[in-house]
Design brief:
- There is one protein chain.
- The protein is mainly β.
- It is built from one helix and 15 strands, in the order H-E-E-E-E-E-E-E-E-E-E-E-E-E-E-E.
- Strands 3, 4, 5, 6, 7, 14 and 15 form a seven-stranded antiparallel sheet that branches. Strands 8, 9, 10, 11, 12 and 13 form a six-stranded antiparallel sheet that branches.
- A hairpin with a 5-residue loop joins strand 14 and strand 15.
- The chain is globular and about 50 Å long.
- The N terminus is likely disordered.
């Protein structure tokens, strides 16, 4: 999502593929930069239920199964935000390409698109290299933290902003033609904070997103032999 260099080693393969309960409240502990309220802050991100097939042959996809995979996912939102006292309604689209491996490495490229009464505004591609299970500070949109995790057949991106954050859950299944995927990417309200999330735009203005609803999504996974 945001530009960053390759990071430290991640968790072990057994941790990647550990089975969690169907719904897990996961605290994302983030150290805020001085401008973002000094100290540690906890945003509780609830991971959605991952439904698995009852068939004995439908084994959960592991992180090792994804080594060499290329994933393309897209999510469209209806959003309302407030900037300098002005309220705007628009659609926001996030397109992301992800490559897995070698090992614990994840590379991603993201493009944000805003669709409003003035037209369609496509942002610049942003790329990053990450290590599964290792959180890192990022600087775009006012700063925050980002981490990729994997458990029980689902690859999850957690992103904390100035206030609030989002969780992108990419769930994988085995099909007759190979691996398939689906994506769900809710924004997360921070308890006690105004609005849904707060970020900074490219001009340094504080933007408070007061509502965000996912209206459509798509996901495709390909894997070289």
């Amino acid at each position: 999502m945001e530009s960053a260099s390759a990071s430290r080693g991640g968790s072990s393969a057994s941790e990647h593929d550990s089975h969690l309960a169907s719904s897990v409240a996961t605290p994302l502990i983030v150290a805020r930069p001085p401008k973002m309220r000094i100290g540690f802050k906890c945003i509780w991100l609830t991971l959605g239920t991952v439904a698995l097939s009852a068939s004995a042959s439908a084994q959960p996809v592991t992180f090792a199964d994804l080594n060499g995979a290329a994933i393309e996912e897209s999510v469209l939102y209806n959003q309302v935000s407030v900037t300098n006292g002005q309220t705007s309604s628009y659609q926001s689209k996030v397109d992301r390409k992800i490559s897995i491996g070698p090992g614990d490495r994840i590379d991603d490229t993201e493009i944000d698109t805003r669709i409003d009464s003035a037209g369609t505004h496509v942002g610049r591609p942003r790329t990053g290299s990450w290590t599964i299970g290792v959180p890192r500070e990022v600087h775009r949109l006012g700063g925050g933290h980002k981490i990729w995790t994997f458990s029980n057949g689902t690859l999850t991106l957690l992103r904390a902003f100035l206030v609030g954050g989002y969780a992108t859950h990419i769930s994988f299944r085995r099909g007759a033609a190979g691996l398939t995927c689906s994506v769900n990417a809710p924004h997360i309200h921070e308890v006690g904070a105004p609005g849904l999330l707060t970020i900074e735009d490219d001009r340094g203005r504080e933007v408070q997103v007061v509502s965000s609803k996912q209206v459509s999504s798509s996901c495709q996974v390909t894997k070289s032999n």
